[in-house]
Amino acid sequence: MATTIADDLRPMHHPKTWAGKYVWSQDHKVIAIQYSLTAIAVGLVALVLSVLMRLQLGFPGAYSGITPENYLQYVSMHGMIMVVYLLTALLLGGFGNYLIPLMVGARDMVFPFVNMLSYWIYLLSVVVLLSGFFVPGGPTGAGWTLYPPQAISEGTPGHQWGIVTMLVSLAIFVVAFTMGGLNYVTTVLQARTRGMTLMRMPLSVWGIFIASIMGLLAFPALFVAAVMMLLDHLAGTSFFMPAMQSMGQTSQTMGGSPILFQHLFWFFGHPEVYIVALPAFGIVSDLISVHARKNIFGYRMMVWAIVIIGGLSFVVWAHHMYVSGMNPYFGYFFATSTLIIAIPTAIKVYNWLLTLWRGDIHLRVPMLFALGFIFTFIHGGLSGLFLGNVSVDVPLSDTFFVVGHFHMVMGVSPILVIFGAIYHWYPKITGRMWNDALGKIHFWITFLGVYVIYLPMHYIGILGVPRRYYALGETGFIPQSVHTANEMISIAAFVVFAGQAVFFYNMIHSYFWGPKAEPNPWGAASLEWQTPETPPGHGNWGAHLPIVYRWAYDYSVPGAARDFIPQTEPPS
Amino acid sequence: MSLIARLAEKSWQNPGIDGRSDPADYRPPAAKVGLVAFMGVATVIFTLLSAAYLMRMGIHGNMGHGTAGDWRPLPKPPQLWINTGLLALGCLAWEAARRLARSGEAAPMRSAAALGNGLGVLFLLGQLLLWRHYQAGGYFLAANPANAFFYLLTALHGLHLAGGVIAGLHAPYPPAGGHDARLRIQLCAIYWHFLLLVWIVLLVLLLST
Q1: A107 to chain B, closest Cα gap in Å
Q2: N or C, fewer C-beta in 10 Å, chain A?
Q3: Which of A276, A199, A146, A209 is nearest to A550 (CA)?
Q4: Under a CB-based contact definition with an 8 Å cutoff, are residues B24 and A197 in contact?
């Protein structure tokens, strides 16, 4: 197995053909871009689905093409695509791939061939997933959680073929992720350059590293659950399927446990929240530090908070199952462990704020997105405190309050960080600068827009408006104002959707016609900005690997000549 | 240097300068770390399946995880022991290959590795025969959850072993510029020991229930 730790360029497999360089590439930077573009493309499908859902909710019946079955299919596909195929793939496959080798001073991932396979298998999983739209009966409408027995029982949209494509796609995705995850973890452990101790790594790498370990431990649960449900559906086993009566006939299955599926699903599902959140935490720490020209406050505390959050997230999964019924002592345990996560999370939030405190804040576009993240994350986190308690969760669980909560905390927040990160590293990735005014327009449309969308959802949720409903109809407890609020939310959603065109225009236009970027336009200290070429060439570092003498946060050091000291600068 | 000690390092301490060793000097090979991480993933898969097995059995019947009544354990034919013996012998062959590789005896090492692979293939064939034996007895996949778990667990274990055989076929013949055969054989031996351990745990689970 070729390793890339030494200054020896021989094992680098320099590509000789166009396809070897851009298609079947083993270069982590190319793979990162392949991962990112695929994730964004499939994310756009999910975004269109959400617009169709809002069309139905805001203006019921306005577009007759959306049937109740379609609506459930949109909900399910939107959720699964956004959580797994967009956020996980983009943050780990995209940013993980691009940033880890550059930030730790490696020439590439330690297993480049496996890394390439990881992308192509991921692409296969996306193709299988999207094929669900073209099979008889359409994609599954079981909700993104795919609970049995309804997911594979008659009456649920896509219960015959849609659920099969979904489960097969998830199993393939887990294989792809495992290949990538093994690479990320091993590269961080094995390929750091001289002087790059673990406690000198940028927090972006820490977030991605811990999230990768979590993914390796959590995704097997999804794999196992998917395989078992496939067997229940296709081979007639009874892992999850109880005996059921339909039209006077008893099903062939008996004795299976739907709750068992829920345990397996959420043993994956909750860590998944943090698999998405931890890379975002890490990246936003770096954005804030660079653009506030201050070292990150409490670096070691930040690292430990990431590690502790990662560990705790494996013992909270059943808080998603309060309404499924459980032993009250279990509920007590899971509520307690859930609320304890607030402590390391609050440490991180305070440290971000303290990093900003009296900093030399530059309100550039990446910083705006980082600040926007702090707002949305605090809001989403606080509503999580409500839902972490059993007695509060039970009445709120099936309402729009939950939709508002999780979109704020794990939908909008990581997406804002992703936008910030794209704006931040775009000059390094492409060698071009984007248009600042368009970037700011994009930020304000997105940031204000998501508030108009998700804040009212908390209120209509408290009124008791149920989620997952195709239409509310005429009910006594839902006042007219809810319908008006739904119209407003939908209009805001359309505006935010259209506003993303500004982002895509900016990125595509700048790629071809943007001004040439400086090698280090933000004056950042971390290693990826110190490459000899911009964008970095194959092998990243030219003839010799960099040597690291300090952490990544030497900003505004008193007495220093510049307001930052690169990690590669020896102590004087 | 342990992971804990590395985490206790301070960012202002300069490895290699302040009298501290640099991590770049004492790392195990990346392939070994990758293999350990992969075995971690496999351990999680089999642990979760074992937990699901026990829950589905109805041990916790009062928690709603299935009913105790529908679980009918499989019979334990002697083939189980024969297959276990084949796998254990395969592990011994790989252990011999590892020791021979360490002492630099290339030709006997290749023979031992080939023997290990052969025993692995025999184990897989034995497992298939065991499946056929159960099928002939009417113990079909969908007939009972105990059967379903048996087929699922053995299939997943078999897939992992088949991967081990494919790697094992290549291990004694390293390409130019890659790691030497010693490391590759060592990694194969570690993986086969791991799969034997997993099989013994699964066997205890099957025999005791």
Answers
A1: 14
A2: C
A3: A199
A4: no
Contact with chain B for residue A501, Cβ under 8 A: no
Domain B36-208 falls in which CATH fold? Answer: Four Helix Bundle (Hemerythrin (Met), subunit A) (1.20.120)
Sign of CA dihedral B41, A348, A276, A156: positive
Q: What is the CATH number of domain A25-239+258-530?
A: 1.20.210.10
Instruction: Name the residue in chain B with its Cα closest to that of A194.
Output: B24
Contact at CB, A197 and B9, closer than 8 angstroms: yes
Q: List, for residues B122-142, the tens digit of each pLDDT value.
A: 999 999 999 999 999 999 988
Name which of A10, A194, A327 is nearest B16 (Cβ-Cβ). A194
Least Cα separation, residue B37 to chain A (angstroms): 7
**B residues 55-114 closer than 8 Å to A (CB):** 55-56, 63-67, 69-71
Q: What is the DSSP string of B105-152?
A: -HHHHHHHHHHHHHHHHHHHHHHHHHHHHHHHTT--TTT-HHHHHHHH
Stated pTM of the model = 0.95
B52 in A contact zone (CB under 8 Å): yes
The count of CB pairs under 8 A between chains A and B is 146
**pLDDT digit string, tens, across residues A293-344:** 999 999 999 999 999 999 999 999 999 999 988 888 888 999 999 999 999 9
Point out the residue among A196, A221, A257 whose CB comes nearest to the CB of B64. A257
Residue A1, pLDDT above cutoff 50: no
Q: Does B178 touch chain A (CB under 8 A)?
A: yes
Interface check for A236 against chain B (CB to CB < 8 A): the answer is yes
> DSSP assignment of A88-102, as one string?
IIIIIIIIIHHHHHH
The complex's ipTM?
0.92
Closest CA–CA distance from residue A463 to any residue of chain B (Å) = 32
Q: What is the 3-state secondary structure (H, E, C) of A177-242?
A: HHHHHHHHHHHHHHCCCCCCCHHHCCHHHHHHHHHHHHHHHHHHHHHHHHHHHHHHHHCCCCCCCC
Mark yes or no for CB contact A186/B30 under 8 Å. Answer: yes
State the Cα–Cα distance between residues B38 and B43, nearest whole angstrom: 9
Q: Are A287 and A420 in contact (CB under 8 A)?
A: yes
Q: Are B167 and B117 in contact (CB under 8 A)?
A: no
Domain borders along chain A are 25-239+258-530
Calculate mean pLDDT across residues A136-159. 94
Which residues in chain B show pLDDT less than 50?
60, 66
Q: Give the other-Cβ count within 10 Å of A546's Cβ.
A: 20
Distance CA A326, CA A152 (A): 24
Q: Cβ B56–A256 below 8 Å, yes or no?
A: yes
Contact B44/A220, CB-based, under 8 Å? yes
The Cα–Cα gap between A494 and A62 comes to 15
Question: How high is the pLDDT of residue A10?
Answer: 46
Domain locations in chain B as residue ranges: 36-208
Within 8 A of B31 by CB-CB distance, chain A residues are 1
